[in-house]
Amino acid sequence: MASGLGSLVAIWRKFTRITKADGTPIRAHIAEIRTIADRLTRLGDKPSDALIIATLLGSLPKTYHPLIVALDAHPEAGDLDFVIGRIINEAVTLEHFNPDTPSVVSPGNESMALRVDVRKITCHNCGIVGHFASNCQKQPNPYAKPTKPWDATNALAITETAYAL
Ligand SMILES: [Zn+2]
């Protein structure tokens, strides 16, 4: 075998210690784990599906913990393709519905792709926090101020979010 025992140990260490970085898309992260598993297989030390699943679940950030708990009790939790499918579904859900990051692109500022924390936006039509007047479900209020998301009331939310990102 061309590769020595040292490199096999190094690859195993990488495999068991891998964690998903914040900016890494989930599919890229899964692909990296599978690539390392393939290298181990080629070196004659194939990790079992159960070990790949354990490594994969252990490498995910806290936001995936509800999924991991659910999978622990699931009869198909030993099926690698099933687990990967569930992780990808969860990633999509977290991306679109994560209550910690409710942000939208500010109307009128699409070209700047300025992200705005909608929790800090006050609607100038109905006065309720959490949406722009342009997205308001209420009847238009003839006494409402002009509805510019970048005006003084909402500028703070936009600026704070921009710096937070
Ligand atoms: Zn409103």
UniProtKB/TrEMBL annotation:
Q: What is this protein called?
A: CCHC-type domain-containing protein
Q: Ranges for the CCHC-type domain? A: 123-138
A Pfam family cross-referenced in the UniProt record is Retrotran_gag_2
Molecular functions (GO terms): nucleic acid binding; zinc ion binding
Tell me which InterPro entries the record gives: Znf_CCHC (IPR001878), Znf_CCHC_sf (IPR036875)
Determine if Hydrolase is one of this entry's keywords.
Answer: no
What SUPFAM superfamilies does the database record attribute to this sequence? Retrovirus zinc finger-like domains (SSF57756)
Q: Return the Gene3D superfamilies for the record.
A: Zinc finger, CCHC-type (4.10.60.10)
Q: Which UniProt keywords are listed?
A: Metal-binding, mRNA processing, Zinc, Zinc-finger
* Any one biological process term the GO annotation gives: mRNA processing
**Does the entry feature the keyword Zinc-finger, yes or no?**
yes
